[in-house]
Amino acid sequence: MIELKNVNKIYNDGFQALTKVNVEFQEGKINVLIGPSGCGKTTTMKLLNRLVDYTDGEVYFNGKKIKEMNPIELRRQMGFVIQNIGLFPHMTIFNNVATVPKLLKWDKDRIKKRVIELLEMVNLDPNTYMNRYPSELSGGQQQRIGVIRALAAEPSTILMDEPFSALDPISREQLQDELLRLQTEINKTIIFVTHDMDEALKIADNIVLMKDGKVVQQGSPDSLLSNPANDFVKEFIGEKRLNSNNQLNDLSLANYINKDILLVQSDIRIEKATSSLIERKVSSAVVINEDETYNGIVSLYDAIENNSSEINSIIKKASLIIYENDKVSTVLEKIEGIHDIVPVLSKEDIVVGLLSVDKLFATLHHLTEYKRGEI
Amino acid sequence: MEFIMELGQYMIANYQELLNLAWEHILMVAYGIGLALLIGVPLGVIAAKVNWLAPIILSLVNILQLIPSLAMLALLMLYFGFGFKTVVIGLLFYSLLPIVRNTYVGIKEVDESIIEAGVGNGMTPLQLLYKIQFPLSIPFLMAGIRLAAVIAISVATIGPYIGAGGLGKEIISGISLQSDVKIYAGAIPATIIAILADFILGKVEQKSKKRMAA
Q1: Cβ contact (<8 Å) for A135 and B213?
Q2: Which pLDDT does position A149 carry in this prediction?
C-alpha cells in the first residue's frame, strides 16, 4: 500500500512542484498518474522511490514512512521502467534483466531460471535473445526487456514513467495489451505515468488527474468520464470521449428489463413448477420467497430430472444478478460469458424482472455501427 | 636513388642496433602510458564525480601539456637525474591530459536515462560507477590512449638529450654528425611505430564502440 499525505515539494529555487498532494494508490491495480506536462505527475512518481525527495508531508510504503527507509533498499523493492527504455547497452539481455537479482545477490541458478521465465512471459525466445545486446533488438522488444527488468526481483510495486511514449503507435498498442495481460497474472501495484488519455482509459483501474502540482480528481476511468469534477477535467478528457461514454450512460436500464416473467414460489411442489415452465415455454424461472424477495432460479431440466421432491432441492443461484438502478455501463462490465437468466432486483431484493440481454446487445450493436459510420 | 640505396644498406647493416633502439622506444612509451592510466583514470573519475574538483584537475593536466617538451624533460632531469626513468615520467605527464579528459568526458557522456535506470533499480553510487559509467566510458578512454600513444612516441625521440635510449639516439647522433642517413634511419622507424600504434589502437577503439551503440 502506498499513500501520500499532504505532500509538498518545493525546489531550491522556490518553485513549488507539488501542493498538498493526497493520493492513495490501490494495491494490485494499475494506477495512472496523468496530466499536462509540468503538472507534477513524474515528480509524484519519483517521490516513491526517492529519486526526488519531498519537502514536507509524508509518504507511506506498506505502513512505513519512506523517509525512514534506506533509498537503495527501497528502490530494489520497486520495479522501475523509464521513459527512454534505458537498457544498459554494454550488457547482454540476460544481464540487463538480471540487474536487480544480481544486486540482491541471488544465486546463479535462481537468476537464470527467473530470466528465462520472464523472457517467456513476454514471448521472446530465451535461447535467441538472452545473449544479444540491446542494440540488436527493435524498440518494442527493448521496452519489453525494460518491463521485465523491472519485474525481475518480484517487487510488489512497479513504477512506470511514460514507458510506451517513445514507441511507434503499433508497438505501443501491443505493449499496452501485453501489460494488461501480464497484470492478470502478476497483480502488481503499478504506478503508471502518462500524458495520453486514451492510454489511461485503456489500462487504468484508478486514474489520478493532476494539474499545476495538485490532484484535480481521482477515481475509476468510469467515474472520471461520468462525473468530471470541473471544466479542466472535461477539457482534458476531451468532448469526444465524454460523449461516447455519455451515450452509454444515457441508456436507461429500465428499457431492458422484461417484467412479464414467470415467478415460482419457493414452497410449491416440483411438478407444479414443471407444468408452469412448460406452459410459459421458458427453460428457467425465478424463485421468490413468501415476501416476494429473490430466492434463486430453477431450470426446466432440473425440474424434470427430480420429479418427486420439494422445489428447494433444485434451486440454484443465478450466475449474475443486477439491480434496477445499476448503470448500463456497470451491467456491461459484469456480463461475462453466457448467463442463463439474469434477474433484476429492486433495492429491497424484490424481483422486478429479467434482464433482456439480447435487446441490450442489439442497442449496443446499433450504437457502435453508428460510431463507425461517423469515422 | 643513390641516397635510398645508402640508407637501405645502413639500416640492414645496423638492424640489430636499430631493433634494440625501437624496442627501448616502445618500452618508454608503454611505461609512460601505463603509469598515466594508473593515475589518469582515477583522476578522470574523480573529476566526473566531484563537480567542484573538475575544473581544478582538468586545468592542471592542461598546463602540464602546455610546457614545451624539451623544457619539461630538462626540468624533470633536475629532480630525477639522467636516464630512462626521467623520460618515462615525462611521457606520463604528456599522456595525462588525453587520458584524464577522455575518462571525464566518457563518464559525463553516459546517457541520462541509463543513469536513471541504474539509480532507479537500486545501484549504489559505486555500483553505478563500475557496472555502468566506467564500462560505457571505455570507447572514449580508448580514443584518449590512442592520442596519448601518438604524442608519446614523438616526444620520446628527444629522450637521448637526457640520457635515455630509443630511436631518438640515432636521430640526435645524426644531427651532430651531420649525417642525413642516420637521421632517417631513426625517424622512419619512429614514424612507422606511430602509424602502427594509431592504426591498431584505432581498431580497438572501433570495436569497443560498436557494442555500446544504443
Answers
A1: yes
A2: 94
